[in-house]
Hints:
The complex is a heterotrimer of chains A (332), B (654) and C (362). Chain A is α/β, with parallel strands linked by helices and 332 residues long. In chain A, 44% of the residues lie in helices and 17% in strands. Chain A is built from 13 helices and 11 strands. In chain A, strands 1, 2, 3, 4, 5, 6, 7, 8, 9, 10 and 11 form an 11-stranded mixed sheet that branches. Mean pLDDT of chain A is 86; it is low at 1-5. Chain B is of the alpha+beta class. Chain B is 68% helix and 7% strand. Chain B has helices at 8-11, 16-28, 30-58, 80-93, 122-135, 137-140, 160-167, 169-202, 205-216, 225-234, 239-244, 253-279, 282-289, 294-323, 326-331, 338-349, 352-377, 399-428, 446-479, 485-497, 500-510, 522-547, 550-558, 563-574, 576-591, 608-617, 621-649; strands at residues 60-71, 98-105, 109-116, 146-157, 429-431, 435-438. In chain B, the strands form 2 sheets. A 4-stranded antiparallel sheet of chain B has the order 2-3-1-4. A two-stranded antiparallel ribbon of chain B has the order 5-6. In chain B, helix 3 (30-58) packs across helix 20 and helix 18 (399-428) packs across helix 27. The longest helix of chain B is centred in the first third of the chain and has 34 residues, at 169-202. The radius of gyration of chain B is 30 Å and the shape is globular. Chain C is an alpha+beta fold and 362 residues long. Helices cover 24% and strands 36% of the residues of chain C. Chain C has helices at residues 45-53, 95-105, 110-123, 139-151, 169-186, 197-203, 221-226, 231-236, 337-340; strands at 5-16, 19-30, 34-38, 60-65, 68-69, 80-83, 157-161, 189-194, 206-211, 214-219, 241-251, 254-259, 262-266, 278-283, 289-292, 303-314, 319-325, 328-334, 348-353, 358-361. In chain C, helix 5 links the parallel strand 7 and strand 8.
Amino acid sequence: MKGYVRSLWFLVLAALTGFLILAAPAEAQRVLRVYTHNDTAEMEKWVPEAEKAIGMKIEWSPRMASMELWTRVLAEAPNFHADMIWGFLNSHAQVGAQRGFFLPYKSPAWADIPAEFKDPEHLWYGYNYWFSALGVNPELLRKKKLPRPRSWMDLTNPVYKGELVMPDPATSGTAFIFVSAIMQIFGEEKGWEILEQINRNAGQYTKSGSAPAHSVAQGEFAVGISWDQAVYGRVEKGFPIEGIIPAEGTAFDLEAVAILKGAKNVEGARRLIDWLGSKEGQTQIGLLRSKVVRPGIPAKVSVDPKLIRYDALWAGENQKRIMSEWAKRFQR
Amino acid sequence: MGETFPEVRQKRRTGQGDRIAELGRFFRNPGLFTITLLAFLLIFLFIVYPIGRVLLKSFTVSYPAVIVTFHHPRPAPEGFKERLAGIVDRAAYGVKGIEARRLSAEERETVLTVRFRKDWDDLKGLNDLRRALGKEKDSLLPLAVEIKYRLGQETEASFLTYREFFSQSRYYRALKNSILLACITTLIVVPISFCFAFSGLKGPPYIRGFLKIFGLLPLVAPPFIFSLALIILGGRQGIITRLLDLPLNIYGWQGVIIAQTVTFLPLGYLMIENVLRSLGSNLEDAALDMRASDLQVLLKVTIPLSAPGILKAALLVFILSIADFGNPMLIGGDVPFLATGAYLLWVSENNLEMAAVFCVFLIIPSMIIFVVNEFFLKGKAYTTVSGKPQESERRPVAGKVLYPMLGFSLAVSALIVLCFGIIFLGAVTKILMVDNTFTLEHFRSPNGFRTLITSVKFSLGAALIAPLIGITVAYLLVRKKIPLKRVLESMSLLGFAVPGTVMGIGYILAFNTPPLLLTGTFAILIVNEAFRNISVSLEAGVSKLHQIDPAIEEAAADMGAGSFKTYTRVVLPLISSAFVAGFIYTFMVGMIAVSAVIFLITPGNDLASLYILSVAEQGYLGMACAISVMLIAVVLGSLGGLKIMMRWTKTEIL
Amino acid sequence: MGAKEILRLTGLVKRFGDLTALNQVSLVIERGKLVTFLGPSGCGKTTLLRIISGFSFPDEGEVVLDGEDITQTPPNVRDTAMVFQNYALFPHLTVAQNIAFGLKIMKKPKKKIEDEVERLLNLVQMEGLGERRPHALSGGQQQRVALARALSLEPKILLLDEPLSNLDANLRILMRGEIRKLHRRLGITIIFVTHDQEEAMSLSDELIVMDRGVVRQVASPVEIYETPADEFVARFIGQINFLPGYVTAVMPEGMILTTEIGELFLAPPDFPAAPGARLAAVVRPESVGIARRGAKPPEEGMNVIPGRVEAAMYLGFLMRYTVRCKDMSIQVDEPDPRYNGIFDEGSEVDLYLRRRVHLLSR
Lengths: 332, 654, 362
């Protein structure tokens, strides 16, 4: 019997350790919880800076693809599990504003930023913008004797069969912008035809919008549809990848930030919006993104793209319809 | 104490009168009554109810709807309703996507409900409708109404989602693929496991320890790290692909099958080795004595005799393969599978109805197999009943039987080691085989550390709750006379039998609205994980309790210990080894959990296993490797610590 | 080799780590005999059987079966057949399939297998039970099936490894008789392993008593009982009074052995014993007579030893006394207490010892 009594100690010990570990860091500091569709690598750099600026801990994640993030927000409404969204699609911001998901905040730090980047009712702010871009691997193109694509139309060329990688519009905002841009450039009917042919060439769909640039840089695919910094960031690091802005023009999207209704830490969220509009914040963002919204802040402008007049509201209002059409036609 | 008391509860037949008396006693015992009620309530709430919600959801269909309210003065103007209907008709004519509309008049207001197509954006519908009605301003003005717009949803019971499932190939192919995948994986894992177990038991003695290490190694790693390693090895730009200049593509079927094979090997190996060991060498010796060659012994005696056990292992691997989430997610490419399909339906389309239908098709095979296992295979195993295990020396098996199996096992072991090696090397080099510079930069991931700590907290929490509940239920089942035993047992085992994806979606459906608003909390993650795993602790508890002679408890009670005291002083210490087993199992499973928790995480509650999945998907393979290495280190470290703790307290595991 | 010899074991040594399970065992077994390996557990008898059957291989020495060296031959090509302690019937096969197992392996024609199975079922009195599964049989029936299965191989030697130990007492006695009958009928060589001395005595033509890896005595049951080769054998088989002493005088008609219970006048042993030789008298309890103190000995020239009854145990068919004689207790079995009367504890008695007793030199 004595052995058993002794083994009772094990239970006590286990329980004690458990409680200690579970109860120990009872957050002394206030925490700001954010949703984001930003790249993990970006967040790992920005978050520590932002934490310093707002004086609070920021818990971000899970990192989600744009569509994933928005579905989650829709599903959670009106009981959101985060205080704010830092980084989501402009079209979603417009839809969210209409649905009344956001808490308005008039940030003084944003006073001298042009109105086109701000919601007139202060429900959301666009802190930088990004655009669709192609990434090609010149070595692979040469090796496989493929022509360099110059336009969206070029991607329909059957020579690229199996050599094209693109994100899945079901999850990726990059892909959604690309698809809705094609619709807006060519009209819906012609647009679907073009997508049909591009789909035939696609060797792989990725969940995130950055992954195609990564694949091309790694030499897995010759051509990838991605977004500007995913491609140019890798050009800079010396990967075998080159960026191409299609001749028809490309769609840009504002990177939006908004406070969710019912946020527990409104103060922190406001401070973060202030920081994102400030010189320091914009400088930090500019280190990793092509274009920021505050005049006079340098960003990594490596190209001056031909931008189309992208209708984000139209994209937002027709997302479900386009996506189910896409799934019906192309989902493998 | 070595004696066991199998099937005690089945055999104890009681008459009708006795049963009523027993029930009376049960209701008069407030402590027992409360505990039993609590067990029933908790298990129902956290296991049965979410599954029920999934089932219900699959039989509904919901449409986006816009609700327009026309407030009007009283009394309503002459011919108000007819005139309004005319206006609405005109306005709706120009709005796309309308499926049905309904005008209902009440005393002070008239409500127009417009149902849109299922795949229509409700906000676009609302805006279009507002614009169209805006054009009718002139006609509406005389009616003196005030108009309010609201988004809504029309839900009705329907088989439509099922019909849609079977009419669209992107849906039903997921079912077909999942079943095919499970069949293939099972057919591969079982023979490999058999080879491992057989050559471990019959080969040279040192081989067994060797094979055991490699066979069980995959247990400590997140289930998808093999996918990760395979991508590094055999992706389009993988090491093998480049070295041999092959047009390999690991994504898709081949990748998932290889990754699942390695992932489920430990389980198959453990189960089949157990079967072979319990078979003993006696019958094989007899067959050999009957002039059978080693090959004939294997084919005519060993395999037929271990067939029930092998079948059991096969069924379990089948269930796990169908329920697997991480591998299809990471390496499945464009091939749709049920478990991941349900997740993607949720995240990309918010189509919970179709996700629920996917879940139903995930539940069905698992339930069939669960039932077959529980009711047809239970206790149907050939074990040699001999007083003492024959401590005979290991008789060498003919090389032509042993060596192919051993060679095969070693080849698979090499693959496992290779995968682990790749993960480790991938973590400490810039880009493995492209830039082999040693670096620790992948480990510098603040979020990686944070999620790792969250994972430990999460697993610990679940590992403390699961055995507590599981063993309490085991105690109620084995030792107490309570009503509806079978129901309680089946309900508890359900959490394990049902794939994690189903439990994830079930929790979203069940706990996303007040008064049961629990999603978004850390607690819900722990609760989910704990309740999914109580069955392991329950089984361990039941088998331990069957080993304890009830006389010991009675003796304790005779000596004046009350029921509670009996439990804490006598029963609890005795079953602490069951607790430890449940604890270790739940902790390990928690550290590598993916499938259910992916539906429930929120900022700040992110788990390391999911973070690895996420960074791997974005192509940061080095970082994924580094966090995997840290995760494996934490699991191994915790197990080591536990072992030291157990040695110190002299507790045994089972 | 003689025509009578079937199995020859020479210098067998088997070690398990530090433990020597068999130490230089050499034996010859004659054709058609029923031979029993007898000894306490751990004596090496099972190891020896496993070496004969081929499940284990000796470190030294050789095994010759019917003139053929089979020391390193695996069991499936040896002409031996084994009946296992727990019968080792295949649970997934019927009784008939169990018996036919070896015949099928040997690729006998189908018809022949059927006939053979039928014959063997008859032989072990299991007619009509061929379609049963082993778990539906009683222990005795399983035993018969195991026997039939082993016999189907027509082995040169049938090996039985404690085959009766899992049966209850009555069945054990019955099966003992059956095995004996079967042996008589088939004339097959059988090696029987047991730790049960009664079983061994009643069955065997020849007993091989083993202890700690060494063969102590090879002899018929009568010889083993009446003239054990050493103290171990004497003590292992039946009850014994072991009276150590030394020779104090040798006379033409006998000698005097001085023991702890006094001087005994005994017939000389068949080996030379000079005065001073250290010997021991081995006396079975039933060979010691008992009578009231001072009664007349039933035979002339018997040794009379006075003593006091320490314990008296009534066993029905005999009376078992423990009698204190000087410093030693002597066990006495009185076969006919009804006739001779019962002595209570504390009674003063005389014990009678014949002159001819079995003597061992120490």
